[in-house]
Design a protein that fits this description.
CATH class of the largest domain: Alpha Beta
Number of strands: 18
Strand content: 15-25%
Oligomer: single chain
Low-confidence stretches: 1-9, 447-456
Largest sheet: 6 strands, antiparallel
Radius of gyration: 48 Å
CATH superfamily of the largest domain: Histidine kinase-like ATPase, C-terminal domain
CATH architecture of the largest domain: 2-Layer Sandwich
Number of domains: 4
CATH topology of the largest domain: Heat Shock Protein 90
Mean pLDDT: 81
Strand order of the largest sheet: 2-1-6-5-4-3
Number of helices: 16
Shape: rod-shaped
Helix content: 40-55%
Length: about 500
Amino acid sequence: MNNKLESDRLPGDTILKSIGEAVIATDAQGRIIYMNPAAETLAGRTQQDVLGQAATNVFPIVSEETHLPIETKLAQEDEVINLEGHDLLMTRTGAGIPVVGSIAPIRDESGNVTGVVWVLRSDTEKRQSRQALQEIFEKVERAKREWESTVDALPGLVCLMDEQGYLIRANRTIEAWHLGQVTDVKGRRLHELLHPQCVNPACYLDLFLKQATEQAGQLAKQEAFDPVLGRHVLINVCPVHGRDGSASWAVVVALQDITERKQAEQERERLIQELDAFAHTVAHDLRNPVGVIIGFAELEYGYSVTSNDELRQSLQVIARVARKLNNIIDELLLLAGVRQTEVETRPLDMPSIVAEAQQRLIDLIHESEARIVLPDIWPEAWGHAPWVEEVWMNYLSNAIKYGGQPPYIELGATVQADGMVRFWVLDNGPGLTPEEQNRMFIPFTRLGQARATGHGLGLSIVRRIVEKLGGQAGVESNNIPGQGSKFYFTLPGCRTPAP
């Protein structure tokens, strides 16, 4: 067969030479009779070199998955084989080129099949583009997942908001704060989400967010106590700029719960105030007994002759004042230890504890001729015996010092409806005004400073002990002379679980 004549009879040869797809024509036996320049480039051979050769030998196509040759012989006269990007054209070097295209019959004027036309196109560039796009997509998805994982792990609420003030997305703190589902926030306003029932036109959050949105491009910050959330929050608004520094198209709003920090600051301020009062009180009260000791010591030192009775009396005063100093030091140590020490609470033997407290005050009881009335039965309660003894001793000491003349003191206890046991000490003194009652448990405040002396540590110790044991301390008084004041403290009853 004259292959040149056959190829010359192929219609549209000029057009075929100009297109980018590889076009290969074969005779009815599958031998190449024509290749355009694109086919020559794809095969790496010229048309003259391959005329008359089987197309399947010049263009061996295999499955990309199995690397087995694909079927290129038409089973029926009207069949078309489509290559859809899952096949490779194996080159003479053994490399595989991804190809797409089709294999279809060639018909003469009578409709008879006279050959086959292959139309092939390298899919390398598109595949590389698709692969590059896929890699970009995977990077974006990975960055998105990393962003979400990072932002979701933050304890605060982080939101992305558009320039109109509508939410685009938020982290899962939305769910942790019981404000809704992450998937439901898009298109809502942050103020509506956080304060769903708010109708206050002067709401701090609404005003701040509006101002921050209007001033897009600028950082904004505000601290506030949010009454709806019930927590102190720090709100930061940060603009999102384009890579080229173009104007902000969105803002990031971050709400951080700073309640613990605020409480720590308040506690620190309270401790500073207590420390100032502590330093003033202790310095003042230690000076008096130390001055007494120095005075009596110098008195004895200044006289060469002193009777035994006078010496004994001076030593008794020195010993009494020294014991007072020792008590102050013990109370200081207890005051510091209660804050830091953890103790195991147990059922209390209250009669024994009260008896020990009275024994420690025996001299004061005898000197004042105080009468103390105790109940027949004490309700059972949980606590730490040494600490509870200190509470009783402070309450009894105050009742003796500031009660009537002579002091009449009644002790008692009642079980409350909540299971707590309320213990109390009732004196027969002049009572306390409402203002004095409010000041009683403020650290280092003295009872009746105009009437008696004291170092102002007792009730501070009482309050700290009782609160550490899970109870409360307080005072009741109607400010009527003779009816006195009732100082009380509560502890968990034994019918309730131990704190």
